[in-house]
Design goal:
Elements: H1 8-20, H2 26-39, H3 45-55, H4 59-67, H5 78-86, H6 91-95
Helix pairs in contact: 1-3, 3-5
């Protein structure tokens, strides 16, 4: 179901991101599948852009990024929020700050 404010282009972009989320590393595949099931329809444009960058990374680099503690960065906190959606162990670290 497409949200009322979603454009066909946005839907196509999300479909491409979902496809790129299929990874060779089982752990990433499971995390990203769960992420799409729970948050796929609620991505902001900023999260979509950041996820595009992350999914261009090699599996090992992306896994390391998601395993690292969330940090403040030039993305204005978007990366911490997106990391919390993808990897639930980050959620408590974000809400407790």
């Amino acid at each position: 179901m497409m949200p009322n404010n979603a454009s066909p282009f946005a839907t196509e972009a999300v479909k491409r991101l979902r496809w790129k989320s299929r990874r060779g590393l089982l752990e990433l595949d499971l995390l990203l599948a769960d992420f799409w099931q729970q948050h796929g329809e609620q991505l902001s444009k900023s999260e979509e852009q950041l996820l595009t960058q992350w999914l261009a990374m090699d599996d090992d680099d992306l896994w390391a990024l998601l395993q690292a503690p969330p940090i403040d960065d030039e993305c204005g906190g978007w990366s911490k929020q997106l990391a919390a959606k993808i990897h639930p162990r980050h959620a408590s670290k974000i809400t407790n700050r």
